[in-house]
Amino acid sequence: MDNFNFSIPTNLVFGKDRHKEVGSLVASYGVKKVMLVYDSGKFLVESGLLDEVRDSLKGAGLEVTELTGIKPNPVISLVRKGVAQAREFGAEFLVALGGGSTIDTTKAIAAGVPYDGDVWEYFANAIGVHPVFKALPLGVILTISATGSESNAGCIITNEELKQKYGCGGPALYPKFAILNPQITCSLPRYQTAAGVCDMYSHICERYFTNTKNTLAVDAMSEGLFKTILEIGPKLLEDPQNYDLRAEAMWIATVAHNDTVGVGRVQDWATHDMSYEITNINDLTHGAAVVIMLCAWMKYVYKHDLDRFVRYGKNVFGLETEGRDKEAVALEAVEKTEAFFKQMGMPVRLSEVGIDASRFDEMAKKACLNRGEIGAFVPLDEEKVKEIYQLAL
Amino acid sequence: MDNFNFSIPTNLVFGKDRHKEVGSLVASYGVKKVMLVYDSGKFLVESGLLDEVRDSLKGAGLEVTELTGIKPNPVISLVRKGVAQAREFGAEFLVALGGGSTIDTTKAIAAGVPYDGDVWEYFANAIGVHPVFKALPLGVILTISATGSESNAGCIITNEELKQKYGCGGPALYPKFAILNPQITCSLPRYQTAAGVCDMYSHICERYFTNTKNTLAVDAMSEGLFKTILEIGPKLLEDPQNYDLRAEAMWIATVAHNDTVGVGRVQDWATHDMSYEITNINDLTHGAAVVIMLCAWMKYVYKHDLDRFVRYGKNVFGLETEGRDKEAVALEAVEKTEAFFKQMGMPVRLSEVGIDASRFDEMAKKACLNRGEIGAFVPLDEEKVKEIYQLAL
pLDDT by residue (tens digit) across A194-215? Predict the structure, then answer.
C-alpha cells in the first residue's frame, strides 16, 4: 500500500424520509437564515419534494430565501447572482437540493459570500493553487447519485463569457451533511438508472486496475462491490421502484467514489478522460460514454498485468482459472464485463453512438492536451489513446 | 438497509514515516502550545519513536509539555493531573502517542480543560446523557491497533476511588487526525499480533451476523475483509516484520471498527459483552477472550438463520453448497472459523484459560446486568448466556 490520507468529514444521512430532517439538521448548527438552492426541473415540484423540504426548514424556525434556475453545466453568472442574494439576505447556511450541478453551484456561492474579490478568482486559479479555506457552511439533499460532489470538497463551474470550465476546492467546501434518501431515486428513468449503475462500476475499475502492489483489503472490498453491482443492476431494471435495490445502488455509488476502495494505491482515470471527449461531441450520458471506453481500455491494457485480470475474472465472475491459460481467463473477464454493460442496455461501441474514426485525431489530442499522457496502469499518449478509440469503434 | 448516519471526521494519515509529520499537522491548526501524552512503557523510548515525535513537534516551532505514566485501564486521577497541567501550560492542542489507554486519557483531558466542573461529571453521567460539545482539539499517533479510539468520539476511564468504569463521548472528542504508521506495529509480539488479527475478525462478525435484510454491499465488503484476514493472518505470524502485511492488518483494523461494513444494519455485540466477563476474571488479552466466545456463540446461534451461515461459508471459505444440507454447510463454516483461530495460536475454549463452570452463574449475571438481554441476532438472557459459556468450556 502507498501512503495516503483518508476521511469522510461529511455526515452522510442515509435512508427513508431523511430529507424531512433537513430543518433540524441545519438548525443544529445554530443558524437562523438559510438559502435553499435547487434546479428548475419539474420533478422537485411534482414529486412534492420541494414543499417537504420547505416545510422542514420553516418547521425548524429557519428563515429561508430561495435560488433556482440551475441547469446542467452550471454557470458563474448564476453563482454571482447567488452570492449577491445570500449577502443581501444575510444567509448563514446554504442547502443544495439536487444533483451535481446544484451542489456545485451552492459550493461556489458558499465560497463567494465571505470572499472579498470576485468568486471566479477561485476557479481561474484552479484547484490546489487557491484553496477555499473560508466559506458559508452548506448541506445537501441529493436527488441523483452521480458526481460524488455531495461528499467531496470540490466544484466545477463554467464561465460563459470566457468560455472556460474550471474547478475549485478546499476544506471549507465539504458539505456539513448530505442526505441520501433512496426513495427520491425510485422515479429515475430506466436509462439513467442503468447509466448510473455502470458509472459506479467504472469508478471502482479506475481504482482497482493499478500497478500498486499489496492492496489486498481494498481489492477484496472492490470485488465485493463489483459482484453486488452485477447482482443488483439487472434486478433494478426489472423492478425500478424497489427501495432495497435503490438503497444498495445509492450507497454503492457513494462508497465507489469516496475512496473507501481507492486508498493506498495509484488510480488510473484514463477511461474517464477518454470518455469526456465523447460527451463533448454528442451529449451522451456520462455513464454510457464511460462504459464504451472502459471496454476498449480493458482490451488494450489487459496484457500489461495478466495476473490482475485473472484475479478480477476469478473473484468477480467466478471464472475457473486452474489449468487455464492466463490470457484466456483475462479475455473472458473482459468479455463478461462488456456483456454486463450490454445486459444493462448500454452502448459498448462508438459506432452505436454515431462517432466514427474521423474524429479520433482531434479527440485523442484533446484528451492528452493538459498532461501529454493520461492514465497510470498503462500511461497513454495521443497515439495510444487513438488506438483505444479505434478498438472502441 | 436500515436508516443510518455515517462519517469519518478524523483525518487518517496512513503510511511509512508519517509520525514525523505530527509537528506540521498540529501547526496547521494555528496553535503554538501542545501537550504530548504517552504511556510509561519502554518501547517508545527504546524504539526512538518518542524522540522523533518530540523533534517533529519542536521542529514545527511548537512549545511542548509532556504527560506520561499512563497504564492499561486509565484512571481519572491522571486525567485530573493532565487537566491541571494543560491549563497551567496554556495547551491549545493535545497529542496522544500510544494505544487506547493513552488516547482515552488524552480525550478525557481534552474534555476537562474547558469544562467548569470536575471532568468526572462527564463520565458519571455516561455517554449520551452529557455529551462533550466543547474540548481542546487533539491528534493521535497510534502505536497499537485495537480499540478504534483513534477515530471515534468516545473514551472510557476508571474512577479508582469510586471503583467505577464509565465512558463519555461527544462530537468534540473526534481526533482531528490519527497517524497510522504500520512500521510502528512491526515489533508487536507474536501473541499480541495474533490476538489483534482475531479481534478484527470478530469486529466484522459482530456486524455481519444480523437480522437486517438487504445488506448486500456491506455483506460483500465484509466477506472481502474476512477473506483477507484469513490470508494475511498466518503469513503475519511467519513474517512479523513484513511492512505490507502490517499495513493490511492496520488498515483492516480501522475499517473493521469504523462502521464501513456496519452501516445500515442492527449489530450484535453479545460476543464482546460475554468476553468482558472473562477478562474481568483473569486479565486475558481481549482478542483471545473474544475468540473463545465467538466460537461458542456461533455454535449456539447458527440455526437461527442457516442461510446467513451458508452465505458466510460459501463466500468466505469457498464451501461447496450445492446439493448439501444447509446445516452441514453452516457447521462446517463454524468449524473453519474455529480452525483459523487455532491456527493463529489462540485459545478457543474457556478450559484452556483456566475458567470452569463454577463461575458461569456470576459471569452470566454480570454480562446481562445492565440490559437484561444482550445481543440482537439472537437476544440472550442470563440463561442463554450461561448455555453459551457451557458450550465454550
Answer: 999 999 999 999 999 999 999 9
- Residue A126 has a pLDDT of 57
Grid look-up 490476538 returns B195
Strands B138-142 and B93-98, sheet pairing = parallel
What's the predicted TM-score (pTM) here? 0.94
How close is the nearest chain B Cα to the Cα of A198, in Å? Answer: 16
Reported as type and span, the H/E element at residue B34 is strand B33-39
Residues in B lying within 8 Å of A, measured between beta carbons? 1-16, 18, 213-214, 216-225, 227-228, 231-232, 244, 247-248, 251-252, 255, 260, 263-264
Q: Select from 1.20.1090.10, 1.10.3720.10, 3.90.870.10, 3.30.70.270 the CATH code of B189-391.
A: 1.20.1090.10
Beta strand spans in chain A (E): 4-14, 33-39, 63-70, 93-98, 138-142, 154-159, 164-169, 177-180
Written as one letter, the residue type at A326 is K
Domain A188-391 has CATH 3.30.450.20: no
**Assigned C-alpha cell, B89:** 501550560
Do the strands A63-70 and B93-98 form a parallel or antiparallel pair, or are they unpaired? unpaired
Q: Which residues on chain A are in Cβ contact (under 8 Å) with B219?
A: 224
| One-character DSSP codes across A30-94 | T--EEEEEEE--SHHHHTSHHHHHHHHHHHTT-EEEEEEEE-SS-BHHHHHHHHHHHHHHT-SEE
ipTM of the complex: 0.94
Q: Which of B8, B214, B251 sits opposite A7 (nearest CB)?
A: B8
* Interface contact flag, A225 B222, Cβ < 8 Å: no
Question: With respect to CATH, is domain A11-183 assigned 3.30.300.20?
Answer: no
What values do phi and psi take at B132, rounded to 5?
-90, 105
Q: Residue A71 and residue A37: Cα distance in Å, rounded?
A: 12
Is the pLDDT confidence value at A127 over 80?
no
Band of residue B282 on the pLDDT scale cut at 50, 70, 90: confident
Nearest by CB: A224 against B2, B18, B223: B223
φ, ψ of residue A96 in degrees (nearest 5):
-95, 125
> Look-up: residue for cell 470566457?
A162
- Cβ atoms of A284 and A239 closer than 8 Å: no
Nearest Cβ partner of B9 from A9, A18, A217?
A: A9
Reference B333, options B223, B232, B214; nearest CA is: B223
A3-44 pLDDT, tens per residue? 999 999 999 999 999 999 999 999 999 999 999 999 888 899
- Spatial separation of the C-alpha atoms in residues B281 and A10, rounded to whole Å: 42
Q: What dotted CATH number matches B11-184? A: 3.40.50.1970
For cell 463551474, the residue is A157
Q: Which residues contact A169 (CB under 8 A, 6 or more apart)?
A: A127, A128, A131, A132, A152, A153, A154, A155
Chain CA centroid to CA B292, Å: 17
The amino acid at residue A18 is R
Rounded to the nearest angstrom, the minimum Cα separation between A56 and chain B is: 18
Where in chain A are all domains bearing CATH 1.20.1090.10? 188-391
> What Rg do the C-alpha atoms of chain A give, in angstroms?
21
C-alpha B167/C-alpha B175 separation (Å) is 16
